[in-house]
Amino acid sequence: MRTEKQKMLAGELYRVADPELQAELAATRAWLTRYNRAESPEERRRLLLERFGEVGARVEVRPPFFCDYGFNIRLGADVFLNYNCVILDVVDVIIGDATEIGAAVQIEFGRRIEIGRDVWIGGGAIILPGITVGDCAVIGAGSVVTRDVPQGATVAGNPARQRSTWTGGHSE
Question: Which region holds residue 142: left if phi is over 0, alpha if psi is between -120 and 50, else beta?
Answer without folding.
Answer: left
